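INFO  loader      accepted 1 record
INFO  loader      residues=288
INFO  predictor   begin
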Amino acid sequence: MTSATDSPSPAAIRLIATDLDGTLLRDDKTVSDRTVAALAAAEEAGIEVFFVTGRPARWMGVVSDHVHGHGLAICANGAAVADLHADGELVKVRPLERDIALDVVHSLRAAAPGTTFAVELATGIHYEPAYPPFHLDPGATVAVAEKLLHEETPGVGAPVLKLLAHHAELAPDDFLALARAAAGDRASFTRSSPTALLEVSGPGVSKASTLELCCAERGISPAEVVAFGDMPNDVEMLSWAGTSYAMGNAHPAALAAASGRTGTNSEDGVAVVIERIIAERRICDAGR
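INFO  predictor   done
INFO  writer      dumping tokens
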């Protein structure tokens, strides 16, 4: 079941911006046949679709087969725009300066002892020895954050897209609030994981601010955008878009930011709304 306030005319919608994990993707990280069909129908109707995610470009294989039209995706919470038609080549980068990242590391270590870090570069991820293990790049460097953020190693000066900060004991939202209080004047803090894992970007960098830049390049206003999301890193985007939907499984902050609500990611909540938009557009077209 979906709802929204002040919904625009279907004819006015020019772009759909959707998060991936917990939103477009099902819990098994697949895109359902229904959602694939809905995305294709949107593009066929002349509505651009942007994937807007915290994932790095190299993790976009889950949707690369479902890209139509322009093929651009906003990755790393707005720090990069990738061309999925060109194997994820970065066409825009909004980096976190290394000196700011290092300052954040020192601030969080002081405010929350036990915090461990990983550094997401444009060329791959690198992490501290105590950082939680996960499916990392084979070429990752393992070292303390100070070495990882040194200009010479690793990455030979590659732009820093995100700093990741993990705490084993703090509650996720408490960790986010603490980090913002400690260093929110120097960088942008958010989270999308169910654990206490924070994502740190450059000042003013978010899904929303990069989406706004991409829309401005196309002459698209917020009123012509429909957005979908489920976690705190979607809040700014849900607030910016003229119409937005929080998933049925969304974090309370996302629910509060969105103008509407749809089904869960496992219920194809994004597809439900897109199907309705397309159906209403056809009715409008038939009545002309």
